[in-house]
Each structure stands twice: as structure tokens, then as C-alpha cells.
Predict the 3D structure of the following.
Amino acid sequence: MSDQQYYYGTGRRKTAVARVRLYPGNGAIVVNGKPMEELFPRDEHRRIITAPLERLGREQRFSAQVKCEGGGVSGWADAIRMGIARALVAADPNAKPMLKRPTNMLTRDSRMKERKKAGLKRARKAPQFTKR
């Protein structure tokens, strides 16, 4: 599968990074060498991952090979969705408007975990205040 012609896309979410290769194929998605169903038992994550393919109606035309690093499964799912969407645009630039609206699958979600501040227990939680 690695010597075929493919389309590449990178997706990021929180600290997760997904490098996606789209091959012409039967719709199989392999993440870190394992089938998607094995790594993502929740239907919601699978729906998120396959959303760009379903939006364009190309579920059975492409297979994806994905490498994910950092973060957790929810971040991985969103990063993979973005990577697949970007690879689809690389394959067919006419697909870009369909992936932009109504849910923008091509733009990075910039929300990150807020850092812990000195004197606080977490990012915003302060120690309990005692008046007397």
C-alpha cells in the first residue's frame, strides 16, 4: 500500500497530531497499524472520523492510513477528521466548499488546555478561603 499514489493531510486538535494518507480503496481506515474499530469503540468517534467522507459521499472510494501522536482518543478523532478533510481537498480542490460549510472541517480548533497558575490548585480553582 505504501508504494501507491496517495493524498496527504495533517490534522491537529489539542495536543493530538494525525498524519493521514488517503489511497484509492474500499473505505478501510487504519490508525497506528490497527483498524479504526479497534481503537475507537465509541460510535461517536467513528462518526466524527468518517464525517468528511460521508459529506462528499466517498466512503467506499478511499482508504486511509493514519499515524496519530499525542493527546487522547477524542483529540485523535477530531485530528483525523481534519486530516482526512485536508487530504480530500488535496485530491479534489472542488470539494473545499462542501467541507467548509456548515461544519468547518478544514480549520484548526484552537482550544487548548489552560495552564496551571501559581498559587492555585488548577488553572482557575483557588484554595478554599477562610475568613476567620
Remarks:
- The chain has a mean pLDDT of 94.
